[in-house]
Specification:
Largest sheet: 5 strands, mixed
Bound molecules: acetyl coenzyme *A
Strand order of the largest sheet: 1-7-6-4-5
Number of strands: 13
Structural class: alpha/beta
Number of helices: 10
């Protein structure tokens, strides 16, 4: 099962929300957020939907790939903060960019982009399609509780996308799910039914930070070792690691446990925060556009989040 990346793109809204501005909303400080999370500022949408941000990232990826939306055969999107339950975020992106192919979303929280990428890879392997768009787009500011300082300082908005085609550069992947809602839960709320009797939590991100933290460090370590093993390489051969941008301390701890220099981890969370399924493609796009990648470089992508879920994959540039 393999593919090559033809182009990448990212989009984040213009509004910058700094830690100091957040400190006027909840009882927090720039010092606490910088030290405990590593975020200084994040982008927040004031007028764009998740699908609109997704369409902008998708168009940039199409431009980089040098193909048109009409040439796409498949769109697989990932999101936990779609604008509506129906149509899917991907269906709205399809309309906005002018594509005509099948489009659907997968939901695996912050690991969603890597689940979507693996899904598209399987479609390419099955045959009958040439080009696929894979994207993650999130408007988490819509579903965060802005009175809860333990979550609202972490999350942000944005979108990232890849255009892929059949090729030989996807060297291995691993998807993991440990189902349950006790650690991380985004319920839809009470709902409309006059018949349903159970109490439901309100719409918001409900998260046990420390449990998520421990899960994340363990999974980054396990998943990266696993994909390296699968591909028959040593992790020291990997030039770059693009991790989900949740917390600098998570990445630093995982790097130490794996004995991989932190400089190999691509980081942008200081400026963009945690954009859930959009975080890996946004960060990957910044690596591509930095000009630092060399042909033949091995790049590992890894993510973790609600589900609980985690995923990793290995790509040769
Ligand atoms: N400002 C100031 N103080 C705060 C804040 C804040 N924003 N948030 C929490 N605190 C306080 C707590 O109230 C607590 O105070 P206390 O000791 O008086 O009770 C203290 O700081 C420590 O709280 P912890 O929860 O232990 O803080 P921790 O160091 O674990 O950091 C955090 C919290 C940032 C949430 C961290 O646990 C984390 O990053 N977890 C992982 C989150 C993650 O990776 N999520 C990704 C998946 S999301 C998805 O899939 C949608």
């Amino acid at each position: 099962m393999s593919f090559q990346i033809l182009g990448t793109g990212a989009y984040t809204p213009e509004k910058i929300l700094t830690n100091d501005e957040l400190s006027s909303l909840v009882d927090t400080s720039d010092e606490w957020i910088t030290q405990r999370v590593g975020v200084k500022e994040r982008r927040i949408s004031v007028c764009e939907s998740a699908a609109e941000m997704g369409a902008k990232a998708a168009q940039r990826a199409l431009d980089a790939a040098g193909i048109t939306a009409e040439q796409l055969d498949l769109i697989v999107g990932a999101t936990v903060s779609a604008d509506c339950i129906c149509p899917s975020m991907s269906a709205m992106v399809q309309k906005q960019i002018g594509a005509h192919c099948p489009a659907f979303d997968v939901n695996s929280a912050c690991s969603g982009f890597l689940f979507a990428l693996d899904t598209a890879a399987a479609f390419l392997e099955r045959g009958g399609i040439q080009y696929a768009l894979v994207l993650g787009a999130e408007r988490l500011s819509r579903i965060v509780d802005w009175t809860d300082r333990s979550t609202c300082v972490i999350f942000a908005d944005g979108a990232g996308a890849f255009v892929i085609a059949k090729g030989e550069n996807y060297l291995g992947s691993h998807l993991f799910t440990q189902g349950g809602d006790s650690v991380l839960h985004i319920p839809l709320g009470r709902g409309n039914s006059p018949f349903y009797e159970k109490e439901e939590q309100p719409l918001a991100v409900h998260m046990s930070g420390q449990e998520t933290f421990k899960f994340a460090v363990t999974q980054i370590e396990n998943d990266l070792k696993l994909i390296a093993n699968q591909a028959g390489i040593d992790l020291s051969e990997v030039s770059w690691i693009v991790p989900h941008q949740a917390n600098y301390r998570i990445i630093e701890l995982a790097a130490r446990r794996l004995r991989i220099p932190i400089e190999k981890f691509v980081l942008n969370l200081e400026y963009y925060g945690n954009t859930s399924s959009a975080s890996v493609p946004i960060c990957f796009d910044s690596l591509v556009r930095s000009g630092k990648l060399k042909k033949g470089d091995l790049i590992a992508l890894c993510a973790f989040g609600g589900g609980l879920s985690s995923a990793a994959c290995l790509i040769r540039w």
